[in-house]
Each structure stands twice: as structure tokens, then as C-alpha cells.
Amino acid sequence: MIIDCHAHVIPHDFLEGSHPAHPCMAPAGVDGSRTLTIGDVEFLASPVWFNADVRLEAMDAAGVDMEVVSPMPPILNYRLDDGAAVAIARHVNESIAGLVAAGEGRIQGLGTVPLQYPDLAAAELLDVVGYGLRGVEVASHVNGVSIGDPRFLDFFREVERLGLSVFVHAIGSDVSDRLPKQARTSFGFAMEASIATASLITGGTLEACPQLRISISHGGGGALMMAGRAQFFATREWARHDPESQLPNDSPLGLARRLYYDSLMFDTRAIDFLAHRVGIDRILLGSDFPAISRASPAVAPLTDFYGGDEGVAIIAGSNALSFLAIEESGL
């Protein structure tokens, strides 16, 4: 089974709103394309973004048996007030649930919650469950606060209690804004994924929520390249010099192995490194489709993977089922 764990959707329509950051969709062409506008973001969405039949055809063309879809990252809009944020989150989740229902069992959905209000976001998780979604997508930071910050801990505890999964997707920040504009979605996203990974490893979230299932976009950026350094600074020997660097219950490397990472790194050698660092069982196949054209077949980026066919089968199939807590017999 080939499962793409990093694929995005956009609702066909949005509710009307007056806030400058409120999203809207408008017709854009005779082929059914629509234009998404969120603040200064304007994006032309072809029907594959919101039409299940077109989506299934694209999956068939790439040899994909199942997609795990989540909102296009700009829709994770943490600038809205509570009323608008809840209304949009519910609308997006209902839209994704409709796509799942039309997907003939081949589409699994991750929704969204208004994480700028952590208590409200935790309460909204019951709606996520009610819509039949497998979990939520969250951004690498919430208005500049990294996802591993303690203020989000109760939210993650509720995610864990409900048995949901979390996909952390990189978005732009003041850090990536220090880069030239043309580098922000490449180097900038890698930086954001790295910071999110580091904050989860060192901020206490994983220790407080031992059953939490989290995946990080773009292979966690470069965080795992630096995990050895984090391991050194967390040792008891170094802690004699800097007690605050000592993690209480586990090592950074041990905690890094608790996370999942998608394979969207554009270099098989980087995937090899991930597998050596955290294990083949912690890597998920991801494409960023349809924002990025998917390889055909979808597993082509893993062709030279050192784990061979067996390793590819684990990454492209069984790992996704584990991440989503799906029994293969129940498919």
C-alpha cells in the first residue's frame, strides 16, 4: 500500500468575513479553477485541490492508494479573532470531511483548530473527532511562539487523550523573514521545521505526552543534523556547567525518535540520514501534492533508498497506518 502523508486541500468556498486575514475563494476559469485570497496571499487552485473525483484520478496516475490530506498552510490562520477562527476551522473541517466521505476510503483527513486560543482549540478537537478526521495539522509556530512552548501543552494533552494525530507544517516567521524572499520557502521552511522539532524535543511536550503521535514536515528541517550536539549539551557531564541544559527524563535523541518525519527532502541521502538517526519506522512518504507535482510513481524519490524494497514499503505504507493509529485489517 502506498500512502502519501503530506498532501493538501483547499475548500471550494469560504464563509464571508470582513477581517483582512479572512480567506475567500472566487471563480477563476472555465476549467473550474478558483482563486484563494488570504491577506496578501493569492493562489490559483485547480479543481484537484477540492474535487474528490479529480483527486482520485491524480492518485491513480501516481500509484497512490491513500492520501492523508490537510489544509494548505496559509489556511492555518492564527490572526483571526475567536469567533471567526472557530467558524473558519469548522468550515474547513467540514469541507475536508466531505472530501474524505467522497474518497471511497482512499482519503484520510487532518483538520485545523484555532491554536491562537489553546483552550478553545482543545475544545474544538471534539468536533474534529465528530467529523471523522484522524487529527489536526498545526503550524510550526503560532504568531511567533514555537509549537513546543508550554502554553500549548494542555492542547497536546487533549490530543493525546482523544487518540488523534498531529502534523506540524512549517510556515514563515520573523526568523525566515531574515532571508531573501526567494529563499523563504526553501531554506526558510527548513529553518521553521528545525525550530519546531527542537522546541518539541526540548520544551517538555513529548515527555508530558508519551503516547502523542506527531509528524514534522520536510524531514524536520535540519534539526536531526544537530541532534548529536543537543545530546552532548544534555549530558550530565555538561549539565554540571549548565544545569538548565539537562533534560529530566530522556535524551534529545531518544525524544527525536518519538516523532515522525516526512520524506519530502528532495535528496535520498537526506532520507538515508533520517533513517539512520531515528529509524525507518519513523519516516512517512510525503509529496506536498498538489502544491508540488507528485512523482510518478509516488515512491520514485525513494528508489535509491538504502533500505531497499522492504524499507520503501515500510515508509510508504505501514508507517502511515501507525501514525494515524489505523489497523490495516480495518481498511
SSE order, one letter for each helix or strand: EEEEHEHEHEEEHEHHEHHHEHEH
> Please, what is the CATH homologous superfamily?
Metal-dependent hydrolases
Q: Which descriptor suits the 3D outline?
A: globular
Distance between the termini: 11 Å
**Mean of pLDDT:** 87
Percent range for helical residues?
A: 25-40%
Specify the CATH architecture.
Answer: Alpha-Beta Barrel
Helical stretch count? 11
| Oligomerization category of the chains in this entry | single chain
**Largest sheet, spatial ordering of strands:** 1-5-6-7-10-11-12-13
Unreliable sequence segments = none
The tally of beta strands, per DSSP, is 13
Largest sheet: 8 strands, parallel
CATH class: Alpha Beta
Any idea of the CATH topology?
TIM Barrel
Number of domains: 1
Structure characteristics:
331 residues; alpha/beta; 3-stranded antiparallel sheet
Report a brief summary of the structure:
With 331 residues, this protein is of the alpha/beta class.
